[in-house]
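--- STAGE predict ---
source: upstream dedup step, 1 unique chain passed
mode: sequence only
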Amino acid sequence: MAKLNLVVGSMLGAAEYVADHVASLLEQGGHQSRIHNPANLTDVLAEPDTILLVITSTHGAGDVPDNLQPFAKDLAEQRPDLGGLKYGVIALGDSSYDTFCQGGKTLDSLLRECGANRIGDRLEIDVTQHEIPEDAAEAWIQDWMALIA
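--- STAGE serialize ---
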């Protein structure tokens, strides 16, 4: 089974709750997971065969949450060769804003620009439609786990 690093970006806690729930589901599925909050790029990339799963909300005017900004900045400035890295993204946002899920979209773009390979589609959770975002993540993660098996 797979080893995963869960990188969390959260201001108010919703992404943290989703990450905890997803980690539990991954472990029930036989996978190993480690939550990084805050995330350090060097630590996350220390084991090359580990799959990365970004779980982040959006803050302010489409910004990456404060606790994930150093990670995003390091990706943007260092531009590591991530050609062997597989990853997924769970983005949380409010569709009443034109920057809906921008935090997750930003991390997705940064990872792709560094050569990483996304597994499956990015999950975009609209918190106005999902009172409990963990429920939306649960349905997605079951399908996503089949792609990493």
